[in-house]
């Protein structure tokens, strides 16, 4: 077997994801249902390795990405890991974010059609993971949401770049500024997903779409995907480096620290305290000038 071929999933010894290949379809499942399938460092590394393997395996025609259980597809970054590893050492976030970016780029540029199987909450970086796929099918009780401006992060790893392209500028601003649930039916109406089905029909719908994709020409499909990616790649390439640096520099900033601590302490974010702190800084600065 060529060294540029895929390998048996069992040889990869994944712990945080499940990876299967059968009948031309590779399925990558984030397997952390106890934490709503959020993404820690190890999970990102395993996802990246699975995406590379699926991309190299000529026996794989379609890649399906999903989450374990029925509560969450993916809820983005592991905030507990963020609090533990980065609040006191923000420069390490730069390295974590580099792996995050590489993983998402590997999925987006896999050279094969990809389907997001939305089985539950799709939040923050989870929505960006879903948007990194070509197509998406959701169970009818799924909600999509961003929480960056309410929790202390900039949704700049796909959401700020691609939501305006997918749903339009005004709706993108509504999603990212208000941080409210977008139910599956509304997401379908807005063009954020391709299909909504009753939960018990989700697997059948994914299999049906995968079957249609298998019966297409692989090289032509790959290059069509390359061309379709143009505006996504353009907006991503112009902004992602800035996002990586900004988030690193601001990881220990008061706004982000408050958002992370509020999440960890299971309490509401004290928005007015943050605003008062900002006013206090401005007042002190003005007093020094006078």
| Strand element count | 10
| Overall number of domains | 2
Give the termini distance in whole angstroms.
75 Å
Radius of gyration: 20 Å
**Structural class per helix/strand content?**
alpha/beta
Q: CATH homologous superfamily of the largest domain - what is it?
A: 2-enoyl-CoA Hydratase, Chain A, domain 1
Number of H- or I-type helical stretches: 14
Q: What's the main sheet like?
A: 6 strands, mixed
Task: Give me the side-by-side strand order of the main sheet.
Answer: 1-2-3-5-7-10
Dominant shape: globular
CATH hierarchy: architecture of the largest domain? Alpha-Beta Complex
* CATH topology heading of the largest domain: 2-enoyl-CoA Hydratase, Chain A, domain 1
What is the strand content?
5-15%
CATH class of the largest domain reads: Alpha Beta
Proportion of helical residues: 40-55%
Q: Which tags fit this structure?
A:
290 residues; alpha/beta; 2-enoyl-CoA Hydratase, Chain A, domain 1; 2 domains; four-stranded mixed beta sheet; 10 strands; 14% strand
Question: Would you write up a description of this structure?
Answer:
- This protein has 290 residues and is an alpha/beta fold.
- It has two domains: 241 residues, 2-enoyl-CoA Hydratase, Chain A, domain 1, CATH 3.90.226.10; 38 residues.
- The strands form two sheets. The chain has a six-stranded mixed beta sheet, sandwiched between helices.
- The longest helix is centred in the last third of the chain and has 21 residues.
- It is globular, with a radius of gyration of 20 Å.
């Amino acid at each position: 077997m060529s060294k540029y071929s895929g390998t048996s999933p069992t040889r990869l010894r994944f712990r945080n994801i499940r990876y299967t290949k059968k009948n031309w379809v590779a399925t990558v499942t984030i397997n952390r249902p106890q934490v709503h399938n959020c993404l820690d460092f190890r999970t990102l590394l395993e996802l990246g390795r699975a995406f590379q393997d699926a991309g190299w395996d000529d026996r794989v025609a379609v890649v399906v990405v999903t989450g374990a259980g029925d509560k969450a597809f993916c809820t983005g970054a592991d905030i507990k890991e963020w609090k533990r590893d980065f609040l006191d050492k923000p420069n390490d976030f730069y390295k974590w974010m580099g792996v995050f970016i590489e993983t998402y780029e590997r999925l987006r540029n896999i050279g094969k059609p990809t389907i997001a199987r939305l089985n539950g909450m799709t939040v923050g970086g989870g929505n960006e993971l879903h948007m990194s796929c070509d197509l998406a099918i959701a169970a009818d009780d799924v909600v999509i949401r961003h929480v960056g401006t309410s929790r202390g992060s900039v949704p700049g790893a796909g959401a700020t770049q691609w939501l305006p392209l997918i749903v339009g500028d005004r709706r993108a601003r509504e999603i990212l500024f208000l941080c409210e649930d977008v139910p599956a039916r509304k997401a379908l109406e807005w063009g954020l997903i391709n299909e909504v089905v009753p939960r018990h029909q989700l697997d059948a719908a994914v299999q049906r779409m995968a079957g249609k994709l298998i019966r297409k020409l692989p090289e032509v499909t790959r290059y069509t995907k390359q061309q379709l990616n143009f505006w996504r790649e353009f907006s991503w390439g112009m902004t992602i480096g800035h996002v990586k640096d900004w988030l690193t520099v601001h990881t220990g900033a008061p706004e982000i620290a408050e958002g992370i601590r509020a999440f960890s302490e299971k309490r509401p974010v004290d928005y007015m305290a943050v605003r008062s702190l900002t006013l206090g800084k401005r007042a002190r600065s003005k007093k020094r000038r006078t």
